[in-house]
Amino acid sequence: MGKRNAPLPKEKKTEEDVVKGKGVSTRAGARTRTTACGLKAVEGSSSGKKRKVYDAETSGEEEPRTESNDDEDVVSIHNLTTTIRPMLSVGAQVKKSETVVSTRLRKGMHENDRIEVFSKLVSLLDDSRRDLVRKMGFGALLTVKLRNLSPEFAYWLVTRVDGANGVFYGGGDMEFSLDPIQFNCVLGLPMGTQPVPSLNGNLDTRNRNIADHIVKMYGDSGGVSVQKAWEFAVGMRDGQGKAVATIVPIVTREEEFEFRIAFMIVILELVLCPSTDGFTLAGRLLPAASVAPESNSYDWCTFCLEWLKIWCKMFAHQFDQHGVVSGLGGCSLFLMVFYLDHLNVVPRQWCVMPRVAVWSKSDVDALIEADKKAGGDYGRT
CA-to-CA distance for 301 and 189, rounded, in angstroms? Predict the structure, then answer.
């Protein structure tokens, strides 16, 4: 009898960048780098009548199992598949144990509530500014009754999105493919014929000049300031960016032009396409802000969906590796309303569109509490 074959050495794990460009930040302006490791392959000796079959969990120091193979020189499909035991990522283990929220709380992580900041802006807008918001195509955002979002619920929702395939998995058997029309139904966003530009190279001369104006008007050392744009949008600053003592209605075309730009900056970063840049407009959103004067002609539904998918995909890479992530991107307001609308409860005013207008803070709080599981995660209803 020949010598026993020694166990094959483990395959070395290699690191690679799984998120190109800007990753999910743990703080404003930070970049992150994640690693991805493949599953251990089933390996075996191809010589002799005995075949060594290595289990995915077998270490190099343990003796591998030996299977008889007298009739053929290959391992049967049955034996091959039954010996593979996929190893769950850290994030998958957290999901399986339903400790997504508790893990986040234990790490002491928190998010700024952008919806609270946006709702305050809406409460300060006079009639002249509200009329302009409707002309821009975003009048539905004026109907938002919520004053804040549960940070734990928003965080859990993001862990349920497969950004790579555009699928949203709720609790139980809830599974939906995400589509741009859903952003129109939920938030009433325009679905114009023109694609929203995402690269500076896609801008024409006029929009490139507007982008330069935005940087000059609202820029600071950290980038384009959402705070400055917010103050101008409500009338606390004039056309030169100076503070004013009294808020007055918009009357000139120049004032209308500036309001459209300022309001677009605010809703992009606070509502439609949040990033992890805090209250600074993400650099990749600058081209989108430049089309504010003709915003109603653009397809914001597709743009916001793609932004959500990109951020959820980057979030998933970090979550799979660490089981917890600091910083959320993408439209949490959309995910929340879409999820609540599809729970197994009595429908709420299905004849009303957009859906965001239906949900009051008390209704949302009550349903979120009813959907909470014992361990703190959601998906009970």
Answer: 6
